[in-house]
Amino acid sequence: MKNSFIAVLVLLILSGCNDSKDDSSLKINVFNDAQIKNSMIKALEWQEAHPIFAIHPTDWTNGAYYTGVARAHKTTKNMMYMAALKNQAVHNDWKPFKRLHHADDIAISYSYLYVAINEKRRGFADLEPTKNFLDAHLYEDNSWKAGTNRSKEDKTILWWWCDALFMAPPVINLYAKHTEQPKYLDAMHEYYMETYNRLYDKDERLFARDMRFVWNGSKVDRKEPNDKKVFWSRGNGWVIGGLALLLDDMPEDYEHREFYVNLYKEMAGRILEIQPSDGLWRTSLLSPESYDHGEVSGSGFHTFALAWGINNGLLDKKHIPAVKKAWKAMAACQHDDGRVGWVQNIGAFPEPASKDSYQNFGTGAFLLAGSEILKLQ
Amino acid sequence: MKNSFIAVLVLLILSGCNDSKDDSSLKINVFNDAQIKNSMIKALEWQEAHPIFAIHPTDWTNGAYYTGVARAHKTTKNMMYMAALKNQAVHNDWKPFKRLHHADDIAISYSYLYVAINEKRRGFADLEPTKNFLDAHLYEDNSWKAGTNRSKEDKTILWWWCDALFMAPPVINLYAKHTEQPKYLDAMHEYYMETYNRLYDKDERLFARDMRFVWNGSKVDRKEPNDKKVFWSRGNGWVIGGLALLLDDMPEDYEHREFYVNLYKEMAGRILEIQPSDGLWRTSLLSPESYDHGEVSGSGFHTFALAWGINNGLLDKKHIPAVKKAWKAMAACQHDDGRVGWVQNIGAFPEPASKDSYQNFGTGAFLLAGSEILKLQ
Amino acid sequence: MKNSFIAVLVLLILSGCNDSKDDSSLKINVFNDAQIKNSMIKALEWQEAHPIFAIHPTDWTNGAYYTGVARAHKTTKNMMYMAALKNQAVHNDWKPFKRLHHADDIAISYSYLYVAINEKRRGFADLEPTKNFLDAHLYEDNSWKAGTNRSKEDKTILWWWCDALFMAPPVINLYAKHTEQPKYLDAMHEYYMETYNRLYDKDERLFARDMRFVWNGSKVDRKEPNDKKVFWSRGNGWVIGGLALLLDDMPEDYEHREFYVNLYKEMAGRILEIQPSDGLWRTSLLSPESYDHGEVSGSGFHTFALAWGINNGLLDKKHIPAVKKAWKAMAACQHDDGRVGWVQNIGAFPEPASKDSYQNFGTGAFLLAGSEILKLQ
């Protein structure tokens, strides 16, 4: 008996994503609460031991990661998550990154806000840098808003790429709630609509990553090999994951709440329709054959958003099996040492991943998914 | 044979504190030197990989932890301890935390002093911030000393809670010895007596945590369910652990040394009297039934102090079995990955712990205990 | 079968350097690419989890370590190496350490240059502090150059000890290449010749560590017990390892390239002549019996340099077995948890090491060696 247990461990060391043989040979119920919590903590421990970022510890990559850590703490109350959140907040002096007009650079403040709200030691949390960033970001002019930024001609709105809808809105929404200042929510909605009107494809019920992927009927329109439009899994994961975070803290009576509820439901329905049979979404949503393997960052955001919807009555319980299938497949992408593999590298459109490819935001997506899967039980 | 070895490992992953079955099934002599050293190093490695603090890396929680790391190095000379001590000292710029009137904020300087004394590279250690803190702490007025601090009416002396007797006195004592300035020791003694006179219960030979727990015979006196006084295990651990550190570096001919020797002997006798049969003290010393499980931070400080007393001739060797029993039980509270569990969270009076609850100061207490248990052999 | 696999793992935990029994019982081909890469990554992960330095994270010890990490990334492209390189560069603000006249303090810039060259995000890398250091180091007067430094009478040249030839020249060379400013290379050559003329022993084809070990025929000349001269393994490893790094980035048409090629070939031949039968060099090259065990930091630099020479056509392929023997023996010095043991502590002449003794620069030497062993296949 122990032998086979060890045998499985040894196999797992070598096993990759969707390696159903190993997975099935593993006599563990991946939907056992303790099992899910253990997978999540191992993901945290591995990621904390393998710091990574694009350009700075406060950039969007840690922003997404620590948002996942915060939600994992909110569900489990495991002190390891809070210790990690406090540690990075203090080492970062509670500062967002530096580009005041760039949504990426405020994403980290979701974790600062979470700590400030839940760790009430007097004079500990410092939300001043977050406030200053948000005020500049929302209320000061900049070349993108003005449309005078010619570096890229499509940067004529504040949030010109869909990822931005995860990076800034949930932070603004949580800040508005925490400080009881609805004006921030109103400012957010205005910019959100600019992005929605520009990048949301009502026919496909998916977001183009940016203007490069919006068709104008010209022959230079970007197409997948199968002639379909390019819809990036992680890009849409940013949007629907951000919607779940938004709705979770948005006042029930907020005048525009219905817009976000409907957008969430439209996208959730579409994401479910196109879920591959093994449970994990490919990096190109409408051209899964391009890179035909599950990818964990996009799948993690989708799984988080769908499970959140079921847990909050926006999505029918009949979808539980689909969501559980996704988690089971994601769990099989985690290495035995805790690393969450099969994460597409930093990018802006569909590219392949590998068993070993990891990123902190992939771990964040894994933690976000787990934090809602736990509530499905 | 290997199978049973693995079986034990697997069991240990699931085993908790005082789980005598697993413990006995483990065919390892916990008093073997290599075994004790291995438990200590695993505790260090786990804690270094899981940074945690109350409000800042230089606060009292790391102060207590790195005091344990320093003593572990003093006994074992294992370079891993010194590497960790130097790493935190340099990253903290050799600075205590910021409240100049608060004993908690100077505790970290015990580790700075230890490094300065033992790592003699020219221009490496910087004790200036420690000196400046001590001079302000001991020789400048503040509202607590003046008794004009009305935030809490019982804060009318510098060290108004018993934990303070671990946080500041050993640092002051070591600084006085290192810089050969007895005046610091004299200042320390004056403040120590203020606390002793206020919080030491001569009948119970234990310290009340603060004035809230000192009885005045009024009906609002805080009582345990069994009508006894509230004596907190960790609170008294802070005092007796601090006494062992103090006496270890206090000049043999210091005029007030006898006072500390007698206080140590009184408390040590009492701590031994009330040791539970499984070796570990409960969080409420006189109401063990309140939370009837061993707690490792208090027990670690008691075990350190008692073993130190035996190793230094202040306590009879007949108590060795009691001290070894405590260590054996503490060792069973360490998870297989090195985590020291069953540590009561940050607090100020008896509260329960759990198999998974950890704190860096609990790991520090574990290292302090191990550093003297090694010398018992 | 699994049992024996586990048995080996368990044995390895206890196995030390050159423990041929365990090594042979391990049914793994240490020259299998995946195996070498796994040993290297485990070394990186262990070292990142166990930070250590002499006086500061930017000192020469991390300089040598992260040079190894950079070369490991150059060969394998494993993102874990780049994540570690970026992480330390950002936390160090891209700054060398502080003594502008000291070669040790610029060694860390090799890693900064590597990141700058390979991670092209706009405004990410900052080479200004490196430029400022190099300009002061090479072009400003100081007491050592002037010979007016009387702290040690032999410090009358800039690079007065042979270790310096690893610390500064490869950085200067890479900076000259990256910025296309040959003048830096010319300045480097001038100082290199000063050290060569002073410390290189043409008869022994080895470098004295510093003037204390250069014989003047007086009776105070330092001798080994066997009356031979004192040639330190790591000291010569610094030189020949530095030569491999230098030649790797030195323009083919550089006027003085031939000098470095010849020096490399002379030393390589000598290092091979005196390689002990088990593959690992002792800390005293001409008195191996003084401390008769393999030492990994010196052996790592030798192995790196020799493998690099074979891979680049400067050394005959017939030496492959000798180099592979060295790597196999080094691999046996790595603990099961990844720690690279048998590394002589910080020093300036032959001293013994132990199974547990480690240093970050030893891990760097291990990574350097692995990065070229991989190319031997």
Automatic annotation (TrEMBL), chains A, B, C:
Name of the featured protein: Family 88 glycosyl hydrolase
PANTHER family linked to this entry: UNSATURATED RHAMNOGALACTURONAN HYDROLASE (EUROFUNG)
Family annotation (InterPro entries): 6-hairpin_glycosidase_sf, 6hp_glycosidase-like_sf, Glyco_hydro_88, PolySaccharide_Degr_Enz
Keywords of the record: Hydrolase
Keyword flag Hydrolase: yes
One GO process term, biological-process aspect: carbohydrate metabolic process
Organism: Nonlabens arenilitoris
MF annotations from Gene Ontology: hydrolase activity
Domain of life assignment: Bacteria
The keyword Metal-binding is assigned to this record: no
